[in-house]
Amino acid sequence: QVQLQESGPGLVKPSQTLALTCTVSGDSISSGTYYWTWIRQYPGKGLEWIGYIYYSGNTFYNPSLKSRVTISVGTSNNQISLNLGSVTAADTAVYYCARGIRLYGIDVWGQGTTVTVSS
Amino acid sequence: DIQMTQSPSSLSASVGDSVTISCRASQSIGSYLNWYQQEPGKAPKLLIYAASHLQRGVPSRFSGSGSGTDFTLTIGSLQPEDLGTYYCHQSYTTPATFGQGTRLEIK
Asked: pLDDT tens digits for A24-35?
C-alpha cells in the first residue's frame, strides 16, 4: 500500500523559507511511472497545484510561484522536498504531497500538513 | 491557465437521490479530466480519471462523462458517506488546475 507523509514546521515567519518533506513508502520515486506533486489548499478550500517532479529529476512549477519554489528529491532517495521562499500570510494553507500520472489523475495523497505564516 | 468552473457550488440531496455536478473548462482538455471527493478534514480522494474511468475501489454509483470542455459527475443513489466537497481537475497541461468545488450536503 502506497503511503505519503508530509512533515515540516507548522509555523513559518514572513519572508522566511517554507521547507517540507514528503516521505514515500510502498513505492519508489525512481520507478519511472509517476510524477510526484505538491498541492496546497487555502483556508477557503481552493486547491492550487504548486508543481511536480519526475523520476528523471525534471520539474514543472506553477508560473505563479516559479520564482519562489523548488521541488527536489530529498536526502533520502524516497523523499520529495518542497522549498517555498519569501513566504507571506497568503502562503498559509494545507500542503499535500501526492502521486499522479497525467492521464490517470492523482491517485495517492498524503494526509496534508498545515502551514501558517505568521510572526 | 485553463480555468475550471463547477456548478452548482453547493447542493443538498436525500439518500437515494441521483446527483449531477458539472465542470466546464475554458478550453478543450480532451479527456484529461479527473474528479475527487474530499470528506471534511481529509485529503481529496480520486473517484474518476480520464473523464469516465472509475478508480479502483470506488463504488459503481459514481460515473463520469464528457470530453473537450464539458464534463459531468453523476452519483446515482446517494449514500450518507457521499457528503463532502467534489472537485474537478484538468491534467491536460501545466499548470494543472482545479474547479472551485461543489459542496454536497445530505438532507
From this structure: 999 888 887 899
In DSSP terms, B37 is beta-bridged to B45, B86
Q: With 80 as the cut, is the pLDDT of residue A76 above it?
A: no
Binary contact (A106, B34; C-beta < 8 A): yes
pLDDT of residue A75: 65
Partners of A112 on chain B (C-beta within 8 Å) are 43
DSSP string, A60-87: EE-TTTTTTEEEEE-SSTTEEEEEE-S-
DSSP string for B35-82: EEEE-TTS--EEEEETTTEEPTT--TTEEEEEETTEEEEEESS--GGG
Chain B positions touching A66 (Cβ under 8 A) are: none
Q: What is the DSSP letter of B15?
A: T
